[in-house]
Amino acid sequence: MLKIFKVTAILEGISYLVLFANMLIIKTNNPELYHTLLRPLGMAHGVLFIAYILLAIILKKPQNWDLKTFGIILIASLIPFGTFYIEKKYLAHNA
């Protein structure tokens, strides 16, 4: 389960950055492409975000994460590059 969480954390972080790139770069250069990509990219990111949160909740007890660690793991999903930090700091040594 931890390995699935690690992969989800990385994919969620990538999808977040791709969604930002779509909003910031593609929107200004190619508005038609922006609108074409917005829905599938947004949906993929949303599914990965929900999976990340649910897996974090499921793994809280087996990983013995205290409330502070659990909070950091959850908040990291809201910050660009945050899930990469979590994967490196909290998950790398546990797999």
Automatic annotation (TrEMBL):
It is found in: Cell membrane. Keywords: Cell membrane, Membrane, Transmembrane, Transmembrane helix. The chain crosses the membrane at residues 7-26, 38-58, 70-86. It holds the Pfam family DUF3817. Residues 2-90 form the DUF3817 domain. It is a multi-pass membrane protein. It comes from the Bacteria. One of its GO terms (cellular component) is plasma membrane. InterPro entries: DUF3817_TM (IPR023845). The keyword Translocase does not apply. This is DUF3817 domain-containing protein. It comes from Flavobacterium hercynium.
